[in-house]
Amino acid sequence: MFGSRVSLSFTTGSGRRLAVAVREAIRPNEATVSLLDRVFKLTEHGTDVKREILAGLTTFVTMSYIIAVNPDILSTGTGMEKSAIFMATILAAALSTLVMGLVANWPVALAPGMGLNAFFAFTLCGALGLTWQQALGAVFCSGVLALIVTMTGLRELMIKAIPMSLRHAVSAGIGFFIMLIGLMNAGIVAPSEATTIALGDLAQPTTLLAIIGLVITGVLVARKVTGGILLGILITTLIGIPMGVTHLPGTLVSAPPSLTPTFLQLSFDGLFNWGMLTVIFAMFFTDLFDTIGTFVGVASKAELMDEQGNLKGGSRALIADSLGTIIGSLFGTSNTTTYVESAAGVSAGGRTGLTAVTVAVLFLLASFFSDIFLAIPSAATAPALIIVGVMMASSITQIDLDDMAIAIPAIITALMMPFSYSIAEGLAMGFVAYAAIALCTGKARQVHWMMWALSVFFIGHFVLQAIQG
Predict the structure, then answer these.
(1) 133 lies in a domain?
(2) Pairing of the two strands 110-112 and 336-338
(3) Range of the domain at 207
(4) What total number of domains does the chain contain?
(5) Taking the model in full, what pTM does it have?
(6) Would you say residue 402 lies in a domain?
(7) Which residues of 171-249 form beta strands (DSSP E)?
(8) Is there a contact between 85 and 398 (Cβ–Cβ < 8 Å)?
(9) Does residue 300 belong to any structural domain of this protein?
C-alpha cells in the first residue's frame, strides 16, 4: 500500500550480485532491439538503443533537481501536502515525457516548470489569495487553452506576432523572479518595513548552509559538471546534517507516497472573470515561450529541422507539451513544460523518443526514494533556485539595449515580474509599453495585429483593477 515503508540493506557481495542481475535483466535482446528500432526509427536517425538510454540518463540527471525543488516551492504557504506534491511532480513528469517520446518521437523531457511553480505558490495562492485547488483549476485552463491554440494553428501565429525582445525579456524576468524567491527562501534577503527588502541574518544556520550551497552549486555549474544542480543539492543536504539543518530520513527506499491529497482536487470556482483570464493568459504565454525556445535549440542539435527550418513532427511535440500541463494539473502540480536540460541528452547522442521514454522510467523509479527527497531542506533547494534564475536571466543579453524602443518595454517586462511578484503583471505591462512606444515613435505598422489585440486586453485588465481599487 502507498505510504508503507520498506528498509533495504545489502552486503557488499549481495549488492554486487544484485547489480549484475539488474544489468543482465535490462540488457535488451535482439527481438527487443528490433522492436525499439521499428517504433522509434533508431537506424533512420543514426542512433542505437544503448546511446538513447545513456542520453536519457544524462537528461534525467540534469533535470531531476525538480523532484526536490517543486514540492518545496508548492508546499510553501499553500496548504498542499509535500509528499503528495512529490508524487504529482514525478507522475506529471513521467507521463508527459512518455507522451512526448511515444507521440512525437522527440528526445525531449517535460516536468513542472521553474518560475510557474513560484507563480502558483507566491502569486496565485499568496498575493491573489486563491486556494491551491483554484490555482490548479487555472493551470488546467491554461493547458486547455494551449491545446486549442496548438490544434487550430494559432500557436504559430502567436509566435510570429510577439517580438523576440519580449520573448527574451519574459525569460529574463522569470529568472529574476526565481532568484528573488531563492534569496528569500535562503534567508539571504528578508522583508523590511524601512526598505521593503534588506540583507537577512547571515548568522542563522539555514542561511549559512544556503550560502555554502550556493558556492558549491555555482562552482559545479560553472565547471559544467553533468547534473551539477542536483549534485549541489545533495552535497548541501549532507553538509546540513552536522549543522542541525538536515534531518536524516528513517529509510532510504520506501513505497511511493499517496497522491490522494492532490489528485483531481482542482476547482474552477471564481476563475472565470477578467482578472483570472489575465493570469491564465500569462501562464499560457510563459509556457509558450519556454517551449518554443527549447524546441528550436534541441531540434537544431538533434537534426529535427528540415531545410526550411521547420520542426519535424513539431505539431505533435507541441500537442504533447500542451497535454503535459493538463496532466500535471490533474495530478496536483503547476504547469508542466519542456525542459531545456533536454539539450544535455541530445549532446550525449539522443535523437529519438526512446531518450524521453528512458527519462520517464527513471522518474518513476525515483518515486521509491521519497524519504530522501523530502528530507532535503529549503536551504539546499534555495541555491538551485538562484542558479536556475541566473541561467534564465542570461537571456537579457539577447536584447538590443541600444535601441530604446526595444529596450524600455523589454526591461519593464523583466523587472516588473520580481517587483510586482507576478509574472502576469510583468507580461501585461511589457506588452502595453511595447505597443505604446511603437505608436508614439511612428512604428505602429511594424506591430503585428495580434500584439495590438493583446495590448488592448491588458489595458482593460489594468482599467478594471483601477476601478475595483
Answers:
(1) yes
(2) antiparallel
(3) 31-390
(4) 1
(5) 0.77
(6) no
(7) 189-192, 196-199
(8) no
(9) yes
Neighbours of 195 (CB within 10 A): 8
Domain assignment of residue 260, yes or no: yes
Cα-based angle 206, 241, 205 (whole degrees, multiple of 5): 20
82 within 8 A of 71, measured Cβ to Cβ: yes
134: cell is 483554484
| Core vs surface per residue 84-93: b (16+ CB within 10 A) or e | bbbbbbbbbb
In a structure prediction context, what are the per-residue pLDDT tens digits for the chain, which is 469 residues long?
Answer: 344 434 444 444 555 554 555 455 455 667 777 777 778 887 887 888 888 898 888 888 888 889 988 998 899 888 899 999 999 999 999 999 999 999 988 888 999 988 788 889 988 898 888 899 999 999 999 999 989 988 887 777 777 777 888 888 888 888 888 888 889 888 898 887 777 788 888 889 999 999 999 999 999 989 988 778 888 888 999 999 999 998 888 788 888 999 999 999 998 887 777 778 878 887 887 777 777 767 766 666 667 766 665 667 777 888 888 899 999 999 999 989 888 778 778 877 888 889 999 999 999 999 998 888 888 888 988 888 888 888 888 888 889 999 999 999 999 999 998 888 777 788 889 989 999 999 999 888 888 888 898 888 888 878 876 776 5
